[in-house]
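Wed. Picked up where I left off yesterday with GxxExxY protein. The coffee machine is broken again, so keeping this brief.
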Amino acid sequence: MSAKEEIDFLSNKIIGAAIEVHRLLGPGLLESAYEECMSRELELRGIKVKRQVMLPIEYKGIKIDSAYRLDLIIEDCIILELKSVSAIEPIHESQLLTYLKLTKLWLGLVINFNVPLLKDGIKRIVNGQTL
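Structure written out below (C-alpha coordinates, as returned):
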Protein backbone atom coordinates (compact mmCIF):
# COMPACT_ATOMS: atom_id res chain seq x y z
CA MET A 1 0.00 0.00 0.00
CA SER A 2 1.38 3.44 -0.92
CA ALA A 3 1.73 6.27 1.63
CA LYS A 4 -1.24 8.05 0.03
CA GLU A 5 -3.38 4.91 0.25
CA GLU A 6 -2.43 4.45 3.91
CA ILE A 7 -3.37 8.04 4.71
CA ASP A 8 -6.66 7.69 2.82
CA PHE A 9 -7.43 4.49 4.74
CA LEU A 10 -6.65 6.25 8.03
CA SER A 11 -8.85 9.23 7.09
CA ASN A 12 -11.76 6.84 6.56
CA LYS A 13 -11.19 5.40 10.05
CA ILE A 14 -11.14 8.96 11.46
CA ILE A 15 -14.41 9.81 9.74
CA GLY A 16 -15.95 6.63 11.15
CA ALA A 17 -14.89 7.69 14.64
CA ALA A 18 -16.32 11.18 14.10
CA ILE A 19 -19.63 9.70 12.96
CA GLU A 20 -19.76 7.62 16.16
CA VAL A 21 -19.07 10.69 18.33
CA HIS A 22 -21.71 12.70 16.48
CA ARG A 23 -24.22 9.83 16.68
CA LEU A 24 -23.82 9.61 20.45
CA LEU A 25 -23.58 13.33 21.28
CA GLY A 26 -25.40 15.10 18.46
CA PRO A 27 -24.79 18.75 17.52
CA GLY A 28 -24.68 21.77 19.81
CA LEU A 29 -21.80 21.14 22.22
CA LEU A 30 -18.57 23.09 22.57
CA GLU A 31 -15.58 22.18 20.42
CA SER A 32 -13.66 21.17 23.54
CA ALA A 33 -16.22 18.45 24.31
CA TYR A 34 -15.97 17.04 20.79
CA GLU A 35 -12.18 17.17 20.98
CA GLU A 36 -12.15 15.16 24.19
CA CYS A 37 -14.62 12.60 22.85
CA MET A 38 -12.89 12.32 19.46
CA SER A 39 -9.58 11.71 21.19
CA ARG A 40 -11.13 8.98 23.30
CA GLU A 41 -12.92 7.35 20.36
CA LEU A 42 -9.76 7.30 18.24
CA GLU A 43 -7.73 5.84 21.11
CA LEU A 44 -10.37 3.15 21.62
CA ARG A 45 -9.88 2.25 17.96
CA GLY A 46 -6.11 1.95 18.44
CA ILE A 47 -5.28 5.20 16.63
CA LYS A 48 -2.52 7.43 18.02
CA VAL A 49 -3.70 10.97 18.82
CA LYS A 50 -1.88 14.13 19.92
CA ARG A 51 -4.01 16.98 21.29
CA GLN A 52 -3.39 20.73 21.29
CA VAL A 53 -0.03 20.44 19.56
CA MET A 54 2.01 23.64 19.52
CA LEU A 55 2.81 24.87 16.02
CA PRO A 56 5.65 27.36 16.15
CA ILE A 57 6.18 29.70 13.23
CA GLU A 58 9.18 31.66 12.10
CA TYR A 59 8.82 35.31 11.24
CA LYS A 60 11.79 37.30 9.94
CA GLY A 61 14.24 35.06 11.70
CA ILE A 62 12.38 34.92 15.01
CA LYS A 63 10.76 31.70 16.18
CA ILE A 64 7.34 32.25 17.74
CA ASP A 65 6.65 29.16 19.83
CA SER A 66 3.09 29.72 20.97
CA ALA A 67 1.65 31.05 17.73
CA TYR A 68 -0.85 28.25 17.12
CA ARG A 69 -2.18 25.02 18.56
CA LEU A 70 -3.42 22.23 16.35
CA ASP A 71 -6.57 20.54 17.68
CA LEU A 72 -5.52 16.97 16.88
CA ILE A 73 -2.74 15.26 14.95
CA ILE A 74 -3.52 11.68 14.07
CA GLU A 75 -0.70 9.14 13.68
CA ASP A 76 1.70 12.06 12.98
CA CYS A 77 0.25 12.43 9.48
CA ILE A 78 -3.29 13.94 9.50
CA ILE A 79 -4.40 17.20 11.10
CA LEU A 80 -7.95 17.44 12.46
CA GLU A 81 -9.43 20.87 12.95
CA LEU A 82 -12.63 20.46 14.96
CA LYS A 83 -15.45 22.98 14.82
CA SER A 84 -18.88 23.52 16.29
CA VAL A 85 -20.14 26.35 14.10
CA SER A 86 -23.15 27.04 11.90
CA ALA A 87 -21.12 26.29 8.75
CA ILE A 88 -17.55 25.66 7.67
CA GLU A 89 -16.32 28.94 6.23
CA PRO A 90 -13.55 29.45 3.67
CA ILE A 91 -11.35 30.85 6.46
CA HIS A 92 -11.51 27.49 8.27
CA GLU A 93 -10.30 25.74 5.13
CA SER A 94 -7.54 28.33 4.62
CA GLN A 95 -6.46 27.97 8.24
CA LEU A 96 -6.08 24.20 7.87
CA LEU A 97 -4.20 24.55 4.59
CA THR A 98 -1.77 26.92 6.30
CA TYR A 99 -1.29 24.38 9.10
CA LEU A 100 -0.60 21.67 6.51
CA LYS A 101 1.99 23.84 4.77
CA LEU A 102 3.71 24.77 8.04
CA THR A 103 3.88 21.14 9.20
CA LYS A 104 4.58 19.76 5.70
CA LEU A 105 1.76 17.27 6.19
CA TRP A 106 -0.37 16.18 3.26
CA LEU A 107 -3.93 15.76 4.58
CA GLY A 108 -6.21 17.56 6.98
CA LEU A 109 -9.89 17.32 7.88
CA VAL A 110 -12.14 20.09 9.12
CA ILE A 111 -14.94 18.40 11.02
CA ASN A 112 -17.91 20.53 12.06
CA PHE A 113 -20.03 18.72 14.64
CA ASN A 114 -22.77 21.38 14.64
CA VAL A 115 -24.73 19.84 11.76
CA PRO A 116 -27.70 17.43 11.64
CA LEU A 117 -25.78 14.98 9.39
CA LEU A 118 -22.05 14.78 10.00
CA LYS A 119 -21.29 14.03 6.34
CA ASP A 120 -22.36 17.63 5.65
CA GLY A 121 -19.79 18.92 8.16
CA ILE A 122 -16.61 17.31 6.80
CA LYS A 123 -14.11 19.04 4.52
CA ARG A 124 -11.00 17.28 3.30
CA ILE A 125 -8.04 19.60 2.64
CA VAL A 126 -4.96 18.39 0.75
CA ASN A 127 -1.61 20.14 0.77
CA GLY A 128 -0.31 20.69 -2.78
CA GLN A 129 2.75 18.51 -2.28
CA THR A 130 2.58 14.99 -3.69
CA LEU A 131 3.22 11.80 -1.77
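Quick read: The longest helix spans residues 3-25.
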